[in-house]
C-alpha cells in the first residue's frame, strides 16, 4: 500500500485531535443543548491564543457541504429540534470550514449545526477557518462524528477504510490515532465484506453490527443471504442469528466430513471468544490426545498485523 507524503504523515503524527481547535471540538454528546443561561444568537467563544482558531461570522450562502462527510443520513426530527434550539439560543459552538476559493468555503465539521442553522433561517454562522488537506478534512469530520457517536456501523467502517487508503496507515496506527482498539477497527471493516443490501440493513437499523458479524461467519454467500432474509423477516436476535449461523456451518461441515465427532460446547465458546478478540473467523479443532489445531482466516496482511499487535 502506498504511503502518504512525509509532511502529511508527520502532521498526523502529532495526533489527529490536534487538527481540531479547542473551540470547535465536541464538548459532550449533548453539546447542542442550551445552558441554563443561554447566550444570544451572536454569542461566540472568546478569542483564542492561536489566530487560526479565531471565530468569524460567514454567510450561509458562502459555505458548501463537506465532500468527505462520512455520514450518509441525518435524522429529520433531531434536526428540527436543533433548528428550534438555534432559533431560540443561537449556535453555541462554531462550525469549522476550509477555504475553497475566493470568498467560498467548504464545511469540515459541524454539519448538523449548519443544516439546522439554514433550516432556522440564519444568514450567517460562527465559523473557524482552517487550512486542511482533503485527508485532514475527512479525518476531522470522522473524529467529530465518532466523538458524538453519530455514525452507524457502516458509515464508521467506510470512514475507517477511506482513512486507511488515503493516509496509508495500518489498522493499528489508525486505532491509536482515533483512540480505538485495533479489533474495533478490524471488526468494523469486516462489515464492508457484506452484500450491499445487508450493509443497508445495518445502516437503516433493521439489524445490528453484531448480526452482521454473525452473518460473516458463513463463508458461503447463498447460506449467508438466506440467513439474512430470516433475520429480517423474523426479527431474529443476535443470539438466535449466531446459533443459526453455527448450525448452518456445522451442517455444511458434516456433509463434507460425516465422521467428524460432535463438538464440545466448551470449545465452541472458546472459538467464539477468539473470533470476537481477533475480529475474524477462527476455528478450533481439538484432538483426542489433548492437543488440537487453531486456524485463523484472514483476507489481507493488515488483519495479520492486527493479530500480532494484540499478542505482543
From TrEMBL:
Protein name, per record: Chromosome partitioning protein ParB
Organism: Capsulimonas corticalis
Keyword Ribosomal protein (UniProt): no
Residues covered by the ParB-like N-terminal domain: 56-146
SUPFAM superfamilies, alphabetized: ParB/Sulfiredoxin
Molecular function GO terms recorded: DNA binding
Origin superkingdom: Bacteria
Ranges for region Disordered: 1-52
Keywords recorded for this protein, A-Z: DNA-binding
Ranges annotated as biased composition (Basic and acidic residues): 1-11
GO cellular component, one term: chromosome
BP-aspect Gene Ontology terms: chromosome segregation; positive regulation of sporulation resulting in formation of a cellular spore
Coiled-coil region: none
Family recorded in the similarity comment: Belongs to the ParB family.
One Pfam family of this chain: ParB_N
Family annotation (SMART domains): ParB
Residue ranges with Low complexity bias: 26-51
